[in-house]
Amino acid sequence: MLLPPDLPGLAPVLEDAAWHAGVRAGPGRELVDQLDAAGFTGLTWPDLATYDFVAGLRTIVWTLAAVILGIGLLTFAIAAIDRALARRREVVALQVIGSSPGILRRAQWLEAALPTVLGCLLAIACVLLAGATYLDLVGDETPAPVPVRQTATLAGIAVACSLAIAGLTVVATNSRIAPDQIRAE
User: Fold this and answer.
1) CA separation for the pair 146, 125 (Å, rounded)
2) Three-class SS of residue 39?
3) Who has the most CB within 10 Å: 53, 56, 62, 69?
């Protein structure tokens, strides 16, 4: 029951009464901080220490994911640029016989971008499958929700970095033909 505090005759009753207010809210500290600032102090359930612990674990997981993704993409970048430079002799031979630079750029782009983008997306899908399987085996009967926003963010970053690395290999392979490269071929 909700009674306005200025209701006649209510003030003497409120002096001796103990009252509680319950507020349901989403996770986070924002509502608790706002209530504390407004002068409403109280207890939260569950305790915010648990929330802080889970938030810390989430930060650790995202940091590890970023480090692993960074190391994997850096490894691919080094390997792709090395392969592109090693393939330079073949590219010079194709340019000498009249292949257009556009065709060579598209071939290099496709050769570098396609496996990387597909590999990143398949790796993310495998991690989602492994995580869902683990949570289903360990957890209760309720299936774990798929973190769509986080997965889309990770996939977007992986695809963007893969395309950037593929672009670097295209730049590394398409330069002017030097006379000594033609003589060597």
Assistant:
1) 11
2) coil
3) 69
Q: Name the H helices within the chain.
A: 11-16, 30-37, 48-86, 88-96, 101-138, 148-173, 179-184
Query: Which domain does 71 fall in, by range?
Result: 65-184
Distance CA 95, CA 156 (A): 35
Q: Which two tokens stand for residue 136?
A: 């289903």
DSSP 8-state code for residue 45: S
* Cα–Cα distance, 158 to 120 (Å, whole number): 6
73 falls within a domain: yes
pTM over 0.85: no
Write out pLDDT tens, residues 107-137.
Answer: 888 888 888 888 888 888 888 888 778 777 7
End-to-end CA distance of the chain: 91
